[in-house]
Amino acid sequence: MFPDNAADLSFAQRLSRLAAEQPDDPAVTINGITTGFAPFHQAAGRFATRMIELGVEVGDFVTIAEPNSIEFLISTAACWLVGAVPQPVSSRLPGLELEQIVALADATLVIGAQLEGHHCLPSGAATDSVSQSFGPFTETDRVSPHWKAPTSGGSTGRPKLIVSGDPSIHSRTLQGLADTIGARHRWTMVMPGPLYHNGPFIWSCLTLLAGGHVALLPRFDAESTLRAVDDHRAEAIYLVPTMMQRIWKLDDGIKFGYDLSSLQVAFHLAEPCPPWLKDAWLDWIGPDTLFELYGGTEAQMFTVISGHEWREHRGSVGRPISGQVKVCDPEGNDLPPGEEGEVWMRWTNRDTPTYHYVGAAPEARDGWETLGDMGRMDHDGYLYLADRRQDMILVGGANVYPAEVEAAIGAHPEVLSSAVIGLPDEDKGHQVHAIVQRADGSELDEGGLLAFLGERLVSYKIPRSIEWSSDSLRDEAGKVRRGLLRDERANG
Fold first, then answer.
1. Would you state the pLDDT for residue 222?
2. Which of 202, 228, 392, 463 has the fewest C-beta atoms lying within 10 Å of its C-beta?
């Protein structure tokens, strides 16, 4: 957790204090190299000076297109020292999409990419020899009006910015979130996820600000993730179900060869977790350790559920610990427990919004907002999700949720990932189509997979066509763009 003396400090002041109070404690480890809080702060200060030389001012957006690296986190910290808004994006974005995002942000500086007509610095600039020539940055009272501004393609596929409503000041809200997710003083957090995504960004940044240690992987690798927990005796880890599945499907001799007993908090989020996979992890690391969080980057509301609660409310994502949630029919009427509809949410206990969009408008009604998720509530107030409204497949009048079919496919020991979409069908309106990535060396064929699914799914949910892919169907954060997959096949 954040120490008591962190209250009401700006992030800049907090980093300065950590550098003074625990200068040699590990702040970030990646590729076997550990950086302490003092050198981390010094590097951020030098880079902040360089940003100012390039015209970055308080409130300006700075687009960070670095891969997972010490440079990514130094660039983020430098933004807070200047009072700028860190705006993370994937280092592998196509040029056109990057240009659209930078234009939306009206970014003063782009780090890690080159765009004509913009101030840009190459990848690694935060630690290169040029940045070292700038003197230390001594101002610690600057505050960014928005402590982060990640991007999202959303349901439309068009990029938008989701700008935090919180400034770069330690607050009760951030302390509560840090305590919940395991971002605590002198704890080690293993981070295998991509920092440009909101979850990994929050988990890593709050760990640093709490005076904890981020053990960062350059990219997700199943065995390397387990090795990082063992090597660092980590207390906390961030996961998504795609990572959990890849880890679980390691050979038992590898998987159980690492010591995970140090873990006290393991959070998974970002996509639905198949119940069979959740059961496996609960049995492995224990219901006292495994937690799940549901909520959008917009942060209007989020739920948390422990392993013990999940076994009592199987399939739930928990009850709200911040904000409020309800389920409504298409006309906006509240639905009773047990009935499925669209999930709506709103923030509470604050006077200002938790976010604002740049490049989009929220779907709102009477002070409530929706992200397009479908679900239901039980009588105890626990939320159960079905899938995104736009991803639901209507087959002969029956609803098919891709996440349910993907969970069944993923239970096959020779499947690494899958994506399920609806394709046009003259008879039933749509047919279920599955795109499946097999494990290396697998001889699984369509007949074998369909027989496996026949024991797990009702007939109308079983895919009518299967497409094999040699690539993962999900990105590093476990996300899948079903709309893009649908369009490619419909237009093919």
1. 95
2. 392
Q: What stretches of 270-400 adopt beta strand conformation (E)?
A: 290-295, 302-306, 319-322, 324-328, 341-346, 355-358, 363-365, 368-370, 373-377, 383-388, 393-395, 398-400
* Euclidean distance between CA atoms 353 and 347, whole angstroms: 7
Does the pLDDT of residue 426 top 90, yes or no?
A: no
- Using CA atoms, how far apart are residues 373 and 388, in angstroms rounded to an integer? 4
pLDDT digit string, tens, across residues 320-331: 999 999 999 999
Residue-wise pLDDT for 188-219, tens only, equals 999 999 999 999 999 999 999 999 999 999 99
Spatial neighbors of 228 by CB under 8 A, at least 6 apart, are 190, 192, 215, 217, 234
Residue type, position 455, single letter: E
Provide the pLDDT for residue 155.
44
What's the rounded Cα separation, in Å, for the pair 315 and 333?
24
Task: Tell me what pLDDT residue 434 has.
Answer: 92
Amino acid at 342: E
| Residue 332 identity | G
Of 254, 225, 263, the C-alpha closest to 242 is 225
Report which secondary-structure segment, H or E, holds 253: helix 252-255
Q: ∠ at Cα 143 (138, 147), nearest 5°?
A: 120
Q: What is the pTM of this model?
A: 0.85
Instruction: Give the largest CA-CA distance in the chain.
Output: 71
Rounded Cα–Cα distance for residues 306 and 324 (Å)? 19
Instruction: Please tell me the distance from the alpha carbon of residue 137 to that of residue 50, in angstroms, as a whole number.
Output: 10
The rounded distance, in Å, linking the Cα atoms of 117 and 121 is 13
Q: Give the pLDDT confidence score for residue 135 in this predicted structure.
A: 63
Phi, psi angle pair for 218, to nearest 5°: -60, -35
What is the average pLDDT value for the chain, to the nearest integer?
A: 90
Helix (H, G, I), strand (E, B), or coil: what is residue 72?
helix
Q: Which region, left, alpha or beta, applies to residue 209 given φ > 0 means left and ψ of -120 to 50 means alpha? A: alpha
**Is the CA virtual torsion 86, 92, 95, 96 positive or negative?**
negative
Mean pLDDT in residue range 385-409: 77
Q: Which residues pair with 345 in a beta bridge?
A: 325, 369
- Report yes or no: 266 and 237 within 8 Å, Cβ to Cβ: yes
Q: Which residues 6+ apart lie within 8 Å of 284 measured at CB?
A: 260
Helix 275-285, helix 241-248: angle, nearest 10? 70
Q: Measured between alpha carbons, how far is residue 65 from residues 17, 101, 103, 261, 326 in Å?
A: 28, 11, 14, 35, 37
CA–CA distance, 313 with 375 (Å, rounded to integer): 14
Q: Domains of the chain by range and CATH?
A: 4-271 (3.40.50.12780), 392-490 (3.30.300.30)
Tell me if 421 sits within 8 A of 393, measured CB to CB: yes
